[in-house]
Amino acid sequence: MTGCGTTPEPIWTTEYIEATVPRALTDCKPVPAIPDPPVTDKKVGRYIVDLIDAHDDCYGKNRKIGALFGPDMYLGP
């Protein structure tokens, strides 16, 4: 038999699955408003803290979204 010892070609299929991301993971804290004059050290300090907090909120949620779709998703540095 000529077919003995040969490996059959694999059959590939593609399946698309619609994923729903929970709304709690898509809503991030807003970017804080730039302080109004007179700009003091205290206002700038609070602005920086609020800006970092908003960044951390979105960054953490984006990583959680990535975890929902599996370890093969690139999550960045």
Strand content: under 5%
Low-confidence stretches: none
Span from first to last CA? 56 Å
Radius of gyration: 25 Å
Mean pLDDT: 83
Question: What report would you give on this structure?
Answer:
The protein has one domain (1-77). Helices cover 42% and strands 0% of the residues. It has 2 helices and no strands.
Keywords:
77 residues, mainly alpha, rod-shaped
Q: What's the layout of helices and strands?
A:
Blueprint: H1 23-26, H2 41-68
Task: Give a concise summary.
The chain is an all-alpha fold and 77 residues long. The chain is built from two helices and no strands.
